[in-house]
Amino acid sequence: MKGPEAVKIYYAPMPRAKAGFDICKMIKLFFNRVGVQPEHGDLLAISGKYISTSEERLYSIADVVPLEDMSKVSETWGGDPKIGELVARESDLVLPGFYGIYLGEANGILQPNAGIDRSNVPGGFVIFYPVNPAKSAEKIRACIRLLFERDVGVIITDSRIFPSKRGTSGVCIGCSGVIPYVDDRGNLDLFGKPLKVTRRAISDQLASAAELMMGESSESVPIVLIRGLKQYYRYRTPSVDLSVSYEEDIYFSAIKNYLKIKLQMEQPKDG
Questions:
Q1: How do the pLDDT tens digits run along the chain, 271 residues long?
Q2: Alpha-carbon distance 160 to 214, whole Å?
Q3: Cβ atoms of residues 85 and 66 within 8 Å
Q4: Is the sign of the CA dihedral 245, 118, 59, 134 positive or negative?
Q5: Residue 214: which of 4, 13, 54 has the closest Cα?
Q6: Helix ranges, the chain (H)
């Protein structure tokens, strides 16, 4: 039986880029800095914030005028009404938050403040997600084909917190040329029992691997090349949704059931 291919990860600090920079030029510079050329089937992870900067997705907080409704909501939740207004504009759905944080759904992804962030951007500004992360990934692939005549998979990354867990982990917010997940339902576990719900989030796992090198503060490593995992590359990306409905989400279902039971217990009993 043939053993697995050795996995190699390439990364290098990149110069700070101004809004609207040419992402293709920076990718060419990246390969010059790491000293390798892309190979067919490589996987390239790129920070979503880096992509957003190239797409000029920065917004001045001073220019935000909150609507009256959002000002009232922010007063109730304890959040910044200007951030709340931006979350409302950017989101398809906004859920109640806490400690001044909103939960907003953008591109099918539920995130604190809809992914809007103040870190690693100039003071007085916030940065949004890319307009369409999957299309941004496709653009990067086309750029690499043009520059190097090679096809690679591209993962657009971000960091996220998870229920009851401390700290952040890398996640994929859009990809192209990569298997988003592997469906293991129906496969047998070590003891011969069929798996019923297991689907491995391959694109998220790759994003987490890249985030180890990217860091979260002043590392300035927005691009990471992963080599040796061709089994997760596909020329055509399967058409799948990276998110699940709230009805399928185990955390939402548990919270809904908890609130339902709590409400029933708090209702006054007859007699």
A1: 455 578 999 999 999 888 999 999 999 999 999 999 999 999 999 999 999 999 999 999 999 988 877 777 777 777 788 888 898 888 888 876 666 788 888 777 788 888 888 888 888 999 999 989 999 999 999 999 999 999 999 999 998 877 778 888 889 999 999 998 888 888 888 888 888 878 888 999 999 999 999 988 888 999 999 999 999 999 887 666 677 777 777 777 777 787 778 777 777 766 5
A2: 14
A3: yes
A4: negative
A5: 13
A6: 23-34, 48-54, 68-77, 81-90, 133-148, 202-214, 250-266
According to CATH, what is the number of the domain 1-57+130-271? Answer: 3.30.1330.100
Q: Residue written as tokens 């907080």?
A: 61
* Cα 268 → chain centroid: 45
Tokens linked to 147: 């520059």
CATH topology of domain 58-128: CofE-like fold (3.90.1660)
Chain centroid to CA 22: 21
Q: What does the alpha-carbon distance between residue 252 and residue 101 come to, in Å, rounded to a whole number? A: 18
Domain borders along the chain are 1-57+130-271, 58-128
Q: How far apart are CA 66 and CA 84, in angstroms?
A: 8
Residue 179, classed as helix, strand or coil, is coil
